[in-house]
Amino acid sequence: MGRGRATGWIGLGLAAAMALGLAVAARAQAPQQVVKGEPPAGGRPGVHEGVASCSGSSCHSRPAASGLTVRQNELITWQDPHSEAGAHSRAWKVLTTARGEAIAQRLGVGPAEKAKECLACHADPAPAGMRGARFQVSDGVGCEACHGGAGAWIASHYAVGATHAANVAKGMVALDEPKARAAKCLSCHFGSSEPHQFVTHQIMAAGHPQLSFELDLFSSLQKHYDFDADYVSRHKQIPGGVKTWAVGQAMALDRMLTLYGPKNPGGVFPEFSFFDCQSCHRTMASSDPKWRPVAEANPGRPIPVGQPPFNDENMVMLSAAAKVAAPALAQKFETDSRAFHEALAKNGAGAAQRAAALAATSQQLADAFAAKSFSRAETLAIFEAVLSGDNARRITDFSGATQAVMAADTLLNALVADGAIDRGAYGRVKPDLDRAYQTVRDPNAFRAADARTALAQVAEKVRGLK
Ligand code: HEC
Ligand code: HEC
Ligand code: HEC
Ligand code: HEC
Predict the structure, then answer these.
(1) In this predicted model, what pLDDT tens digit does every residue of 7-44 receive, in sequence order?
(2) Gap between the Cα atoms of 409 and 436, Å rounded
(3) Cβ neighbours of residue 233 closer than 8 Å, sequence gap 6 or more
(4) Distance from residue 144's CA to the centre of ligand 1 (Å)
(5) Is the CB of 10 under 6 A from ligand 3?
(6) Rounded CA gap, 351 and 340, in Å?
(7) Is residue 272 lining ligand 4, measured as CB closer than 6 Å?
(8) Are the C-beta atoms of 395 and 316 separated by less than 8 Å?
(9) CA 235 – ligand 2 centroid, Å
(10) Distance between CA 401 and CA 408 in Å, rounded?
(11) Is residue 396 within 8 Å of 402, Cβ to Cβ?
(12) Which residue has the higher pLDDT, 298 or 9?
């Protein structure tokens, strides 16, 4: 796995981001200017020292780097004004755009760049007492928002002989481990139980984009590191695309289910952001003779018509992954997920219990996936399982279809990286993949049948390659 893969990803990633309507406007903005500096001597454990502390010219802001232990140009990637890779450096700035301010104003919490409801994800959420002298909220999602407060390790992590394990013991987040990485990214790309780290339906109704996340694809989009011999020598894991994808699915479902209870303390309506958006947001025209219900029968969701379905995008992916890569858990996962949908439809107190049971199974799946390596045959089998048969019939809504398209993208790239598909053959599948992305570009124009057809074509093309 080398740079070839990274290059392949960029094009796809852009297609992905465009298709998902993500952050495209932000690309035109100027990068944040970060003060350059040398690392401080270090501080209290867990203190977030600020991006300026990482950006010394002999540290992580070299213009071009080669032959070094790490790239050392990480800051430049993080700040890239022309791609998604630079999105985190712009995260605070987007709050000051007309759209950002309008959202906060509608919620009555403005200005956005000062609202805790927004800063929990659009900046490093380190609490006030854990911010070093050079910490700046305006840096957006800085290095330590992911890598952890550097107070205890900033002065020692670059020393000759400093090990990754020693850094982790001092508070660096082990982002090479897929579970730890997923947990970190999901805090902002789905939500967490930390104060204000959640995009409620109310925030979406005020104009916030719907969140969509896939761990492997989004990791590639912001990649500022190389998996080289040196990386391995520091005992860091290189989880591989399929493992990262699978663990990401299990962790996302676990997060969704463990937050469902706390975010639904009671009241007339549940928190709508957990449910399929289009099941409520659609034109109601039953007097129109051409009208047809948007909701389709879905074999994985035993719920009555008229009930908004719980967003099962990760369940559908996990169901496919479990059948191939964790068969001992697959049946339990099916049973638990059906029982959860059923309990929700009855609206009883049983739903919380069922959510907890399904979350526990998701955790078991995350552990099983994290502990195994995925063979080429398994990757192909998961690819088939996601895109065809029973599973394809479960792709009935926008979020599920979007997740399936991202899965096709990720799994295809894993096959290319593995040498199972060569670049030429990949080039012949790419137009079909792009067509699949087209079907999930606009939620208002979404038709599940079109998405399924496009995905079936991708699967058919890949079968033809073998
Ligand atoms: C749980 C974390 C979270 C919270 C809380 C949150 N956001 Fe976001 N926001 C995100 C993520 C993640 C994205 C990027 C979505 C994507 O590209 O997948 C985003 C995207 C946006 C965008 C679109 C950015 C662009 O580049 O087009 C705006 C504007 C925005 N948020 C404003 C706000 C405002 C204003 C608030 C407070 C009321 C807020 N956000 C609260 C996580 C959050
Ligand atoms: C959105 C989260 C995120 C942000 C923000 C982020 N990183 Fe990373 N970084 C990662 C992930 C994920 C990895 C890959 C896993 C790993 O090696 O720990 C990584 C890896 C690295 C590596 C390890 C390379 C190696 O060979 O071991 C360095 C160095 C690094 N990042 C520096 C930075 C710097 C400096 C910044 C700020 C300018 C930054 N990162 C911002 C997520 C992030
Ligand atoms: C502290 C909150 C936070 C964390 C942690 C975080 N992100 Fe983000 N991320 C955001 C916000 C907010 C945006 C949107 C910024 C914008 O639009 O400029 C974003 C945008 C992105 C984008 C660009 C998407 C697009 O459409 O432009 C990618 C890719 C991404 N994040 C990947 C990751 C990955 C991978 C991780 C974990 C390693 C991670 N993020 C962790 C808050 C976070
Ligand atoms: C259970 C039904 C239901 C679900 C599910 C639901 N919504 Fe809503 N949504 C509503 C209702 C009701 C309103 C208020 C409509 C009004 O003010 O006239 C609303 C308002 C909105 C608005 C404000 C714009 C408008 O049309 O008034 C947006 C945007 C929105 N929702 C987005 C979403 C997104 C994104 C999701 C999925 C994550 C979602 N909704 C899921 C019922 C739902």
Answers:
(1) 233 333 434 444 444 433 333 344 444 445 555 667 89
(2) 10
(3) none
(4) 19
(5) no
(6) 6
(7) yes
(8) yes
(9) 16
(10) 10
(11) no
(12) 298
Angle at 35 between CA 29 and CA 39, to 5 degrees: 135
pLDDT band for position 413 (cuts 50, 70, 90): very high
Quick one: pLDDT at residue 222?
95
Instruction: Using the predicted structure, report yes or no on whether residue 185 has a pLDDT greater than 60.
Output: yes
Question: Distances in Å between the alpha carbon of 321 and those of 9, 156, 245, 250, 397?
Answer: 22, 40, 10, 10, 19
Tally of residues, the chain: 466
8 Å CB contact between 255 and 190: yes
Which residue's alpha carbon is at the smallest distance from atom 6 of ligand 3?
Answer: 185
368 vs 372: CA distance, rounded Å: 7
Ligand nearest to the CA of 259: 1
**Structural tokens at position 29:** 């903005």
Distances (CA, A) of 411 to 233, 240, 262, 275, 418: 27, 10, 34, 26, 10
Ligand nearest to the CA of 123: 3
Q: How many CB atoms lie within 10 A of CB 449?
A: 11
94 touches ligand 3 (CB under 6 Å): yes
Residue whose Cα lies nearest atom 9 of ligand 3: it is 88
Distance, CA of 167 to CA of 236 (rounded, Å): 12
Taking the CA atoms of the chain, what radius of gyration do you get in angstroms? 22
CA distance 398 to 376: 29
Question: Which ligand does the CA of 278 lie closest to?
Answer: 4
> For residue range 244-287, what is the model confidence (pLDDT) as tens digits?
999 999 999 999 999 998 998 877 788 999 999 988 887 666 56
Ligand nearest to the CA of 122: 3
Instruction: Tell me how far CA of residue 340 lies from CA of 212, 259, 343, 357, 403, in angstroms.
Output: 22, 14, 5, 9, 20
Residue 104: pLDDT above 50? yes
Angstrom distance (rounded) from CA 392 to CA 386? 7
Q: Which token pair is 144?
A: 């330590």
Ligand 3 pocket check for 360: Cβ under 6 Å: no
- For the CA of 164, the closest atom of ligand 2 is 27
Nearest to residue 309, comparing CAs of 268, 342, 266?
342
Is the link from the previous residue into 289 a cis peptide, with omega within 30 of 0? no
Q: Which residue among 55, 60, 84, 175 has the greatest number of ligand 2 atoms within 8 angstroms of its CB, and so is best to mutate? A: 175
The C-alpha atoms of residue 311 and residue 297 are separated, in whole angstroms, by: 15
273 CB near ligand 4 (under 6 Å): yes
